[in-house]
């Protein structure tokens, strides 16, 4: 299990992943599922989409941010990976989208965010990579308007506390991960930050595609590939880093939790 503190945000690894991230069917499918869930929750509350100001934390190549941008007033898309942000910008330019701003940062320093400026904050398939969760939650609290919504999509914590990340030791690649979240854990974590969990249900399933697993195995057989900056040019997924030779190849499907918290 890779639970040590990372030295960075896994930029080298995510830079390699960025190459194909936004085109991978599983990434597109998961983010469209997340979008559908957001539509249900937002429509249920009768919010006016065209008035919504959104922050996406860990936006990656911007699959969700660009979909949201077509529906809302504006989107701030943030990610510590410069390569992911570059991919987002490419796709944004192609689509002619003008209401997305980018921030090449992990959202942990609240001073860079305007207070009470966002109606929605969303973090999709990324919270399990965030080491400084307390800082992140303080930042979410800081920039959400009172009554604003915080959406989390992430691996549901399993009884044995495992997800496929646990097949690989990603610490050497600087990629932190946890084993996912459930309602009780999120409720406890979010409450001190004035974020009240009002919904937490299994939303959709994620199956890790063969190309992600193959890449993980390849990386592993090459030893410390990422530390030496290998670039394979295609198909990096979550499964990466150095394995310990146990339980490899669990492609799921893994349940993805949708949690919604209100800023009280
Ligand atoms: C698994 S990808 C998900 C990207 C995107 N949300 C999606 O679903 O396609 C995780 C992303 O989180 C970013 N990331 C890593 N550590 C982070 C942190 N501490 N805060 C915010 N984002 C982080 C990575 O750079 C990467 O783009």
TrEMBL record:
> Gene3D superfamilies in the record, alphabetically?
Vaccinia Virus protein VP39 (3.40.50.150)
Q: Which classification does the entry list for the species?
A: Eukaryota, Choanoflagellata, Craspedida, Salpingoecidae, Monosiga
Q: Where is the Methyltransferase type domain?
A: 55-152
User: Per its UniProt record, what Pfam families does this chain match?
Assistant: Methyltransf_11
Q: Which GO terms describe its molecular function?
A: methyltransferase activity; S-adenosylmethionine-dependent methyltransferase activity
Species name = Monosiga brevicollis
Composition bias, Basic and acidic residues: 215-230
Q: Where is this region: Disordered?
A: 215-250
Q: What is this protein called?
A: Methyltransferase type 11 domain-containing protein
